[in-house]
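Entry:
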Amino acid sequence: MYRTRKIRFIEPMSRPGRPFNAWIRRWPLLGPIVLATILRRRGYDVAVLNENISGSVVDDPEVLADICSSDVVGISIMTPTANRGYFIADRIRSLAPDVTVVFGGVHATFCPQEALVYGDVVVRGEGETIIESVASGEIDRGIVTATPLENLDEIPTLDHSVMRDFDKLQAGSRRRELYPLPVMTSRGCPHGCTYCSVTRMFGRKVRRQSVEKVYEDMCRYAERGFGRVFFYDDNFTTDRAWTRRLLERLAPMRMRFEAQARVDFYWQDGARRRRDERLLKLMRRAGGDILYVGYETIDDSTARRWRKGYRGPGSLEKRLREDTKALHESGFWVHGMFVLGPEHDKRTAETIVDFARRSHIESMQISILTPLPGTPLMEEMAPKLVFADYPADWDYYDGTHCVYNHGRLNIEETQRVVLKAHQRFYGWSGWSARRIRALLEQRIPAWCKLAQLWANARTARTVLQQWRREIEQFLEVVKVRTAT
C-alpha cells in the first residue's frame, strides 16, 4: 500500500541571550516555508518546526518521535545556528539512522563539506528546483548545487500554516491583522558590500516576481485575515518602476507593510538633484509605514572601505540626516541598522547614537562587524580571528559577539561599548516621544495600544538584561582564548 512520504523541516535556535532573539521569534526563515508549501501542494506529509517558536525539538519527546519517523528531515542553517543544526542532526541519526538528513541554507551553501559531516545531503543555493528530488528519495547522498529559480512567479502563494505553532506566533501581535506576515518578492542585490553574503548567494542581478503575482498573493493573504506584511526582500526599492507599479496595485487594499530599503532610495540621480516625491507618497498611500534601513556607517571613509555605495555631494552624515528627515516627513517609522568594525572606537559608537537621536530614528541596532562564510570580509579577516574553532565557534558569528582582537578596541571594550550604546539610546524602556506618538496614531483599539506599549517596554528591558549576562559569560570564554 502506498504511503505518503513524510518530510520535516527544522529551523534551529541560536544562542540564548542574543538580543536579536526577541525579533527572530517573530520572523521565521522563509526558505523552509517555501519548500514545505511546494511539497504540501504535491501531496507530501510536511511540516516546519521552528525552535525559536516551538522550543527545542530534541527535548520534546513527541516532537522528536515525529521527526525520527520521517523519511527526510531538512535542517536550514545560518552561520550562528549551524552548530545547533549539527547537534540536532547527530541526535536524529543516532536515534533513526534510516532518516535522510539534509542541510540547506546560506551556511550550508558556503560550508558544504562541513555540513556533509553531519548530514546525508547538502543542498547548495536555492532549493526549489531540487526539493522534490530530495523529498522523493531520488537524491539521498552528497553535495548538490541547485539551479537558481529564474522565474520567481513559479513559487506558490505561501502557506504559513505549514509551520507548527503559527497561531502561537500570531498571538504575540494580539490580533491576526496586526502580525507582519513575512513574504519575499525578489532575490539578489545590485550592491557588493564586503560584509554581506547576499550577492554570492543570490547574485547581483535582482530577480523579481511579477507585479501581478505579488498582488494576487497579497489578495490571498488578505482573504486569510492578514492586514500587514513584512517584505523580506534585501532591498525592496532597487527597481523604482517595478516598485511604483506594485504600490499602485496595493494602494486600494489598505493593507500595511514594512520593508527593507536604502535610506536614499527616493533620489533619481547620483548627484541628488531629483527626488522621486511621487514614490514616497505612493509608498505611504499603499500602506508602507515601517522601513528597516541599513545605514551601517555615517563615516565616508568606512562607507568606501565597505563598498556601501553611497553617492552624492557633501559629507555622508549630512546626506544621511537629510534622507532620514525626508522619510520622517513622509510619515515612515525608521529602524536604523549600524555596524561597528575594528577600525572604530568608543567615540564612533557615541557618534552613531548621537546621529540616531538627532535624526529622531525610532529604533536602532548596532551590530559588530562579523566575517561570515561566503563574504570578501571572511577572506580578509580569516587569519586574524580569535574564534576559529569550527563548528562550535559559529555560535558567536551573529553580529553581537566580537570574534577578532585586532581592532582599535579589544574584544571586551567592543562588547561593552556596543551594549552601552544601546542602553543610552533605549534610555526609557526603549521608548521615545516619537515612538509613543506613532503607536497612538495606529488605527487599532486603545487596549491594543496599551498592551503593545507595555510589551515593547518589557521586551527592551528584558533584552538588555539578558544581553548583559550573555556578554559576561562570553568574556569569560574570551579570557581563556586570549590567555596565551
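The chain has 20 helices and 14 strands.
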